[in-house]
Amino acid sequence: MKVIVCVSLVPDSTTKVKIAQDGKSIDESGVQFILNPYDEFAVEEAVSLKEKLNAETLAVTVGTDKATEAVKKAFQMGIENGVLIKTDNEIVDTYSVAKNLADFINEQKPDLVLLGKQSIDFDSSALPSMLSELTGIPSVNVVVKLTIGDNKVTAEKEIEGGQEIISTTLPVIIGTQKGINTPRYPNLKSIMAAKKKNVETRHSTYNENATEIIKMELPPIKGKGKILTDGANSVPELVKLLREEAKVI
Amino acid sequence: MSKKVLAFIDAKDGKFKNPALEVLTEANKLASLLNTESIALVIGNNSEESSKSFGNYGIKNVHYIDLTKLNSISGKSNFSYSHSAFSKVISEFAKANDCNIILLSANSLGKDLAPRVAVNLSASYCPDCTAIKIDGDKLVATRPLFAGKSIADLLLKNETKVITLRPNVFKVEKLSDEEATVISVDPVSLGITESDFSVIVNDVVISSGKLDVAEADRIVSGGRGLRSQENFNLIEELAEVLGAATGASRAVVDAGWRPHSEQVGQTGKTVSPSLYIACGISGAIQHLAGMSSSKCIVAINKDKDAPIFQIADYGIVGDVFDVLPALTKEIKSVVSS
């Protein structure tokens, strides 16, 4: 079995976003980058398949040299091979990322593609569906439980207020959601082993953008709120404000 | 006349959720701005009659596909629907009817279908949009990034554009009592075949029938200040009197007190309800990112310096164990009077 995990490098969720001088991107100074938290579930799923079924595992990312950090994090968790699809500039258009990954997947012909249900920077949640259309491989996103039998795949997809039980066949593309497993922490041995591994670099196969960010700003700042300080005694006043001023109840 | 604006709506038993009406209203608005027509495509069961109500929102022509008829093409039985077939239907319909702007709700179905449709139509895609502007011949869509820590304007460069609208952001405007003309469409005429059913939903399991935070217009959320799983009954009681969904901070989800489906924040759900009540939540940046676009934020926390108070519209500095029962009681008496 051949498993490909698509990974991305994102700003840590504690990052306080500042807008860069160009007014179209974030100021990356002082920002700590991490493996996208949802990708950790995808990596864990792949590594456990390696352990259980002797699956062949490969992590791939699209981006500038910096993006190799995401593949190295995947190495630390136990992924065997890694590829950077190198672009000259940071890609912000999801279709462009999908096209590069799809070209790679079409060439590699994996049985299973795993990736986080969304990256926590652009939150598009679009890659699994786009990859599916570009490769002709079925996909299920936001998966909280995955069962793979001989060629038969059952996935539980989280939806509003419940789950969909979905069946499809291999090969398949799965977007992982929190709950599918508990990602392992790399130990010292795996961190040392990861250092010896190389990330193969390839050139991007597609560089056009269907969308372009023309402006980025911080969300509007709210005016100072009315904060009451007398504990439970303030409740009647709060309810009055919510009813008469805010008109929300 | 330029090409049409298409609103995609999924319907169940003749019922449409509020986000569907938001999509219809926005489709009609865009079409007016572009001096063109907006049409709706509905896939559903027993919803043909009720689709006439779309006329109220300015949509004159509704194209209706019966779900049972669509499913029968698959040659399979005992399943609810197929994502892959839905996306093929929307794509082929848009081509056949000359639509170049396709709007869907950013609910879990829309988020799954829209990127597929965008690829099929070589379209520019904007997910989770909060505003659409027409600037000459350009279309600019606004969307939050980093779970709302920043707001970006996206230029959609391709001729065809697929956009999902974040629920609870766009207004629903009923314009008249007019009824739309509903036209039944045979999915076979769109070229749908058995092979389009590669992914099928066998079953939908609804957990306890509770309102989901992603869809709710009111949310009561609890954090570590509640001190234990059991104490979340205080959150649930307040939510009940308000008809609100219950939410949670990452800390309490990680602690296993609440399910992940309730988590609000950058690694949970991003929400924009009319009312968000944060109880015992200090306001870590990743939580604030997920809820700061709520229209009215109420914070209850015993620490007056908690960051949540900086974005709150209203707040009480006090112990959640005193304030919450009092608040539930007060609202109950006010609402019933």
Output the keywords.
heterodimer, A: 249 residues, alpha/beta, Rossmann fold, 9-stranded mixed β-sheet, 13 strands, globular, B: 337 residues, 5-stranded parallel β-sheet, 9 helices, 27% helix
User: What gap, in angstroms, lies between the N and C termini of chain B?
Assistant: 54 Å
The domain count of chain B comes to 2
Strand content of chain A: 25-35%
Q: What is the β-strand count of chain A?
A: 13
How many distinct helices of chain A? Answer: 6
Q: Count of DSSP helices of chain B?
A: 9
Shape of chain B: globular
Overview of this structure, please?
The complex is a heterodimer of chains A (249) and B (337). In chain A, 28% of the residues lie in helices and 31% in strands. Chain A is α/β, with parallel strands linked by helices. In chain A, α2 (68-77) crosses α5. The longest helix of chain A is centred in the first third of the chain and has 17 residues, at 37-53. The radius of gyration of chain A is 21 Å and the shape is globular. Chain B has helices at residues 18-33, 67-72, 83-96, 108-120, 233-242, 250-254, 285-291, 308-311, 320-336, and strands at 4-12, 38-45, 61-66, 99-105, 124-129, 131-135, 138-145, 150-156, 161-165, 181-184, 200-206, 218-222, 245-248, 275-279, 296-301, 314-317. The longest helix of chain B has 17 residues, at 320-336. The interface between A and B is large, with 79 and 96 residues. β12 (211-217) of chain A pairs antiparallel with β8 (150-156) of chain B, so a sheet runs across the interface.
